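Two records follow; treat each independently.
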Amino acid sequence: MVIFQTKKQSSYTTAYGTNAYFIGLLITVALLFSSSTKADLILNGSTIYSDLGKDQFVAALYTETAHNNPEVILSMNGKKRMEVHILNNYSMRRWINLWMQSISINNSRENFSDSAEDLLSLMQAPKSAPQKNDVLEYSFSPEDGTSMRFNGTELISGLSGEVFNLLLRTWIGAIPPNTNFKDELLGNQRNNAARELMQSLSPDKKRIALAASWILPKPLKTPEKPPVPAKALKTKPQPQADTQPSPAQELAAEQTQTSDKSSKPTSSAVPAAAEPETLPGGEDNAVAEVTENQNSAPDQAAPEAEEIEEEIQFDVTEALAQRDYTPLVVQKIYQHISYPSRAVSKNHEGTVRVAIKIGRSGELQDVLTTQESKYSSLNKAALKAVKKAAPFPILPKQISADSFELSIPITFRLE
């Protein structure tokens, strides 16, 4: 009914009303569908991923039947879902690198290359980097393959089932973020804090509306009427009106000219958009705001600076090169790890995450710990292993960046 009514209005109002209607409808359908699919699965385990000294997101694994054996879960042909509740804002580059690096060290080249195109499509499906309180769902079903939902909106589906396993191995594979992370997802340990966070957090209504807007078709442009030929115009000459400007018009013109002369050239950089005020009215206002931004002219609403920065494109060739290079670096570092004898005698265990920057010639440009264990001896041993492993292999020519950045976990565990 809304669509037919807006046909009598201007083209802007038509697009505005139609998009608002469809976004509201999509949000409702997405939430209903998401609730129905969640009822089919049970929580196998949940945990919290921490990095840079902060909790970054809650990870949850859902299966049809609970199991604590990773190989059994990976081989299950029933429905499965990986759920991510974001606790801190991410940049798109950091989010994609987090997945791609962990995928590279937990999957064979054969598995990676066979599903590389589908994997890149999945990574690039969201049009915004994850922000606090966003919920991302990666699902598998025998009928539909791998799909991805962002705040309740399905952005992509029908991908190969192996894509889901590529992602799942980053959580329960050979080299997870840390030992507790894997054990808690497998249900060997219970993380009550993770479960409480999952129940207390929910996506912002504006972010729900934004995700719904990504799958809307672009509004059709109203075709312009062709100009009427000059010969077809039959108008009588009209007497010229008095074009002499009034004193008020002359004053306004002088002020405009003075303002133009005194103004300085502006920077070509696009400023970040101001934070919009929160309006009462709930979901309808969130829908209206997103739709209005979509239909505004480029010079009326500049995009947020973060969105401009996050224009990242990966092709299959570069992704495969990164996948091949990452294990070479990791293996060389692991070969130089030495468990401190003092830590062994005191039964000290823990995981240290190190961030590494490698130049094109393989030189180590920087290394630091982004997540430390409770024991300084283990933290120092991790840094020492990286420095002893340098220099690393030369960067492949398919990697276009001037340097290669990698974050890896080093786990010290006594058998």
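The next record belongs to a different protein.
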Amino acid sequence: MSLNRDRFLRTTAGAVAGLAAGAADLQPGSAADDTVFLGLCCPLTGSYGADGEDLRKGYLLAIDDLNNGTGVMGQIPSLRGKKGLLGKRIVYKVADTETNPNTAVQHATEFITQNKAIMVTGGVASSEVIAMAKVAQQQKVLFMTGASGSNDTTGIDCQRYSFRSQCDAYMVAKAIAPILGKALGTKRKAIYLTPDYSYGHSLTGSMREFTEKLGWTTVADVVAPFPSPGDFSSYLTNIANSGADTFVNIEFGNDGVASTKQAAQFGILPKMKLVVPNVSTYFPDGVGAELMAGVYGTQEWYFSLADRYPLSKRFLDDFEKMYPGVVPRWTAHIAYSQLAMWADAVTRAKTFRAPDVIATLEAGKPLTLMLGPVHYRAGDHQLVRPVPVVIGKSAAQMKNRADFFQVVEIVPGEDVMQPLATTSCTLPPV
């Protein structure tokens, strides 16, 4: 099935006039130039390429809406009736991070030092996000993360110049565990397939914490290398012979698809219940409804939420107009909402100056977006937002080719936030 990924890297000409990049006491874009530059870092190739392409599309829609005062941006009170930000038009470039932290750092650094970016955003793998956040902190330039599910992103690796909107692993696990206990019972024997990097260990650790509190037993944690070679045979052999009755697949992106398909070939799925705590954007497309049916997981955002939230409906309609035949996935939602939070803060702060924008975001004023009112927690820069828990539909239940899930519960963010004292976050000074 085509994922409609054209790999087109749209760029806009124009440099931002300003003084030295990274000087926190200066205001980029304040000279005669009427533009400000954003650096968009998206993994368009590598294990998370499909997710990165969806991310790219969300960014481009958001920038188009900001520049024209349209869409969801036009509904935000601080932005209503305005085009651009503080009288300046947004220009940008997109760089392919290749799902590689070293490549991501290279592009983020180039955007800051060469293009004088006032803000950099992007990433899908937590490894590349954490690496870019450290660069942004060093350069004193705002970084709005793309997708990153590791607790470390706003935990031990938290940065004053970085903000994260995706649910962290703790939030996902605390939201889904009670639903799993109610649906599957409290005496399960679980085995995990974990990608060997920050995100994988973070989500497995949080899932174990909350499912074991229910009464589940963890049989084993099978760790596979990341990036993966694509062949999970040796790891799945151990899982198949484990005696577990629940297979919790932490793998993401192309690796999640490949490992799940291979698990079916190994005869694992007929005898074990599959759980995918954090379902990547095109995972259901890749594995198909037959394997997805009855699978519990979470989605950062899902298009059927347009029936519950007016701005989700507006976002969905506008996205499909810009990209005919393409349904936005949750990485596109992250891209759009991150730029909306940033643009609202810039407008209310009345400056692009990073310390002032940070202070405005840290003040925690709720902003109503596609999931209702959301805000950043000052102590770690994690977005306080709902967690949608989903279950896979059968092919007969699907209303269209993208309708893979039923949202079974929307868990309030306030109910699942990790206590700040246990996050290991100590934000550096501005």
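Discussion point: The two ends are 47 Å apart (CA to CA). How would you locate this feature using only the token line?
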